Amino acid sequence: MQIVVIHDTKFGNTVKIAEAVGRGVGTLADVRVMSIAEAVGVDQTFAERPDLLFLGGPTQKRAPSPALRAFIDALPTSLRGIPAASFDTRYRGAIWLMGSAAVEAAKALRKARGELVAPPESFFVARRGPLELQNLEPGEIERAEQWGRTAAAAAIAH
């Protein structure tokens, strides 16, 4: 089974989550973690179509980051119609107030005929200091590893 984790990041928190998801998934299957910039030519990147996609990015202004939005709007052919899960990094709070890039990505993946293997998941950033110095809340890395492992196991069992 080939699994790909594609992410966008601005201050580095989302890449930490993507790598943690990759570690969790890596206990069950071959995994490749890549940025959206690396994934733009993804149709030529893989010898075989991936079996499972994890897609994530930061929530900015209550929505996916511009790079994540552009990627999901032009989702490569090789990533359409495969099992998938989405994640984001954002501040803790109600989705109706904070927004969620993961929820928006999940909608786009379903529209591209993808079957969601897990509900969209948010990982939280602590609101302390300047944006570029804000870090993930304690325990989020470990939670991301477990979430990735659980979602991948569900996809494998399906």
Question: From the helix content, strand content and strand pairing, which structural class follows?
Answer: alpha/beta
Give the amount of beta strand, in percent: 15-25%
The tally of strands reads: 6
- What is the CA–CA distance across the termini? 13 Å
- The percentage helix is 25-40%
| Rg estimate, integer Å | 14 Å
Give the helices and strands as they follow along the chain: EHEHHEEHEHHEH
Q: Indicate the low-confidence ranges by residue numbers.
A: none
Largest sheet, strands/sense/barrel: 6 strands, mixed
Write down the overall mean pLDDT.
88
- Counting DSSP H or I runs of 4 or more residues, the number of helices is 7
> Which shape, going by the Cα principal axes?
globular
What secondary-structure arrangement, pairings included, does this model have?
Layout: E1 2-7, H1 13-26, E2 30-35, H2 36-39, H3 42-45, E3 52-60, E4 63-64, H4 66-73, E5 84-91, H5 95-98, H6 101-111, E6 121-125, H7 140-157
Parallel strand pairs: 1-2, 1-3, 3-5, 5-6
Antiparallel strand pairs: 3-4
Helix pairs in contact: 1-7, 4-6
Structure notes:
The chain is globular. It has 7 helices and 6 strands, in the order E-H-E-H-H-E-E-H-E-H-H-E-H. With 158 residues, the protein is an alpha/beta fold. Strands 1, 2, 3, 4, 5 and 6 form a 6-stranded mixed β-sheet that branches. The model has no long low-confidence stretch (mean pLDDT 88). The two termini are 13 Å apart.
Brief account:
It is built from seven helices and six strands. By secondary structure, it is an alpha/beta fold. Strand 3 (52-60) and strand 4 (63-64) form a beta hairpin.
